[in-house]
């Protein structure tokens, strides 16, 4: 399989105007059912057993994150909670309800160190193959 790249021309004012960039073109969506079927083909478990386990993952992951843990899934990556806050003049002035603006879940893909160069690479991205989607390459039409 390949990651499809769609080209587009920037219309933003400044140094990027008129330059061409690439962005990924999603070919569809896969669900937990699709994952369960693929695991069934690769393992000795029935799809229903895999499905039962996979449907519990989001609930357990959510509970662990809500308890303040960073959750690492070997071979995949780690999840953690992050917040955006507004400043307070002193620690006493910081109010959880007023100063916390938003929260989000961050995902950090697992990385491995390359022995020859000492650099780190993402495990999930090691096998990426990129292809240009020429039929989708176009400039934005002005309104």
UniProtKB/TrEMBL annotation:
The keyword Ligase does not apply. Gene3D superfamilies: IHF-like DNA-binding proteins. SUPFAM superfamilies: IHF-like DNA-binding proteins. Keywords: DNA-binding. It comes from the Bacteria. It holds the Pfam family HU-HIG. Residues 1-111 form the HU domain. GO terms for molecular function: DNA binding. This is HU domain-containing protein. It comes from Hoylesella enoeca. The lineage of its organism: Bacteria, Pseudomonadati, Bacteroidota, Bacteroidia, Bacteroidales.
């Amino acid at each position: 399989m390949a990651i499809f790249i769609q080209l587009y021309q920037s219309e933003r004012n400044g140094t990027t105007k008129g330059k061409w960039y690439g962005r990924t073109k999603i070919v569809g969506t896969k669900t937990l059912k699709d994952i369960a079927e693929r695991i069934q083909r690769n393992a000795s478990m029935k799809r229903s057993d895999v499905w039962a386990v996979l449907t519990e993952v989001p609930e357990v992951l959510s509970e662990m994150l809500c308890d303040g843990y960073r959750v690492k899934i070997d071979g995949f990556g780690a999840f953690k909670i992050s917040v955006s806050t507004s400043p307070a003049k002193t620690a006493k002035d910081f109010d959880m309800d007023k100063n916390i603006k938003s929260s989000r879940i961050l995902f950090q893909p697992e990385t491995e160190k390359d022995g020859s160069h000492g650099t780190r690479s993402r495990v999930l991205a090691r096998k990426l193959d990129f292809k240009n989607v020429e039929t989708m390459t176009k400039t934005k039409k002005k309104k």
